[in-house]
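QA checklist item 7 of 12: single-chain prediction sanity check.
[x] sequence parsed
[x] length recorded as 457
[x] structure emitted
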Amino acid sequence: MNTRKYDLGKDSIWSLVLMMALPTALAQAVNVLYAIVDRMYIGHIAVYGDIALAGIGIASPITAFISSFASLIGMGGAPIMAMKEGHGEHHTAERIVTTGFYLILIASAILTPLFFFFRNPILLAFGASEVTLPYASEYLGWYLLGTPFALLASGLNSFVINQGQSAKGMISVLVGAALNIILDPIFIFVFDMGVKGAAIATVISQIASMAIAVLALRGENTAIKLRFRGFMPGMIKKIIKLGLSSFIILSTDSLLLIVLNAMLQKYGGPELGDTLITCSTIVQSYHILVTYPMNGMTAGCQGLVSYNYGAGLTSRVRTCFRNLQIVITSYTVIMFLFTVFGASLFASLFSSDESIIVLSARYMLIFECMIIPLSFQYVNVDMMTALGEVRISLPLSLTRKISFMIATIILPMVFGAESAFFAEPISDILSCTVGTIIVYKSLGAILRRREKNGLTI
C-alpha cells in the first residue's frame, strides 16, 4: 500500500484515527442531509406540509432498510480487502472490490421491483393512514427508481474509505448532498412537484455520488482498484458473514422505526396518531444526525484496525480501540449538550406549527438522553467486525435491537403511545453495559490468537 498517503502500519495511531475518523464523520453528517433536507422542505409546504412529513417518515425506514444492503456488502467486503492487503495479497484485495461491485448490482435488481410493486400494502402495514398514504407512496415510488445508484454510492464508498482514502469518500458524499440541497427547492417549490420532486432530487444526487465513488476506485493514486473483473463466488459467503452485523444494525434500525410508527399510530388513535408520527419523523431526523457521524468514525477506522490486525500489529489495534473511543465519546457529549439546549431550534427547521415543535423537542430529549453510553456500543460492534469477529459483533447488535423492540411494544401498551420514545434510552444503556463487558473480556484473547496462529480469514 505504498501509494497511500498514510502508512497504516507505522504512522501515529492517534493522528491516523483523527485523519480517518473525522473526514468520514463529516461525510456521514453531510449524508444525513440526503434524508433530512427533503423533510425540512416538505414540512414547510403550505397547507399539507405536516401530513406530507408524516408520510415521508413512514416511507423513510423502508428506504433506509434498502440502503442497509449496501452496508452488508460494503462493510463486509472492505475489511476483508484491507486485511488481505495488509497480509500482502494485493491481487485478491482487488478481486474483492470487484466482487462487492457486482453483488451490489445483484441486490439492486432484486430489491427495486419487489418494493416498487408492493409499496402501498407495505406502507399501510407499517403505519400509513389513508391521509398519509398518497404522500408516502409517491415519495417511495420515485425514490426506488434510483436504488442501484444509492446502493453503489454507499457500498463502494466503504472500499474507498477502508484503504485510507477518507477524503475521497467524503468528497463523494459532499457533492451528492450539496446537489440535493440545491435541487430540492427547485423541484419542490419552483416546479411545484412536492414530495415527488424531493425524491427525484435525491436520486439525481445519488447518481453524482456513485460516479465519484467509481472514479475514486479507478483513479491512478488508488492503491486497490476496481477492475470490473475477477469476481470471486467463493468470497460471497465471507463478505455476507462479516457484513451481517453492520447490516443488522442498519436494517433493524429501520424495522424498529417501522414498529415505532405502527405503535404510535395504533395507540395514538385517529386524533393523535399522525401528529405523533410527524414528531417521530423530526426526532428520527435528529437521531440520525447523532448516529451517522458515529458510524462514520467507526467505518473510517475499520480499515486501520483490519490492516494492523492483518499485519499482526496487535498493540496498534489496542491503541486504535482506545483512541477511537475517546473521539466518539467526546462527540456524543457535545451532541447531548446540543440536545438539551437546541432541541426546539432543530424541530423548528421541520415545522412552523408551535405544538409540533414543542412536542418534538420534548421527545428528542427523551430519545437522546443516553447517547453518551451509546458511543461504546458503536465502537464495540464495528471494531469487532473489523477484526472479523462476527460471533461477538452480531450478538452485541442484536442486544440493542431486541431490547428496543420489546420496550417499543410493551411501553405503549402499559403507559400510552408517548412512552414509546423511552425505548431508545433503555436499549442504549443496556447494550452499552453488556457490550463493554464482553469486549473487555474478549479482546485480549482475540489478539493473542492472532499472534499465535496468523491470519485465518
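[x] summary fact logged: The chain has a mean pLDDT of 90.
[ ] second reviewer sign-off
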